[in-house]
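Journal club side-thread
Mid-discussion, someone asked how the predicted structure for our own chain would compare to the paper's figures. Pasting it here so we can look after the session.
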Amino acid sequence: DPRRLLGVLDDRRQRVEAILPELRSLYARSAVKPRLRFFEGRDGINTVLYDTLSCRSRRLDGILSMADLLEVPGRAEMEAYIAQRIARGVRLRVVRSREKEAGRDIWPTSPADLRELRWAPDGIVFTMTAWTYDEKVSIIASRREHFGMIIESPEFSALMHNLFTVLWNVSTPA
């Protein structure tokens, strides 16, 4: 009966109206409320990874766990990402842990690759990766936890940038 279509539409409209406040809160952007996006699995991690290339400032500050990034998203994906980062002119200042990179000599300081590397003080080991750029902080967890997250917050980003600067200043140039 064609009249049943109106009932189906009304039912769907009521369902959408019921969840509309929650949907608005997920997508609302204001200066007061940070925006947090959580991603799971390999596809989610790749989403977080490539979001860093959207930075308007063309400058990334990163604390990288290379051993974990070589597992997920993996070396081939990281090479593709680096090529895109360079092509877009995005500079990277990065602090990494020597302890997690024993025996690996990859991705050193390189003006051609727009990368400046420093080694964290001995005993500092990173088990996650974090980038700070514009008003965002992106995080990629290890394979064990297997998630990524993007936090958009001017204040949180400023805090993380300041913490990165302190770490950068006590780290050893590569």
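Post-session note: The chain has four helices and eight strands.
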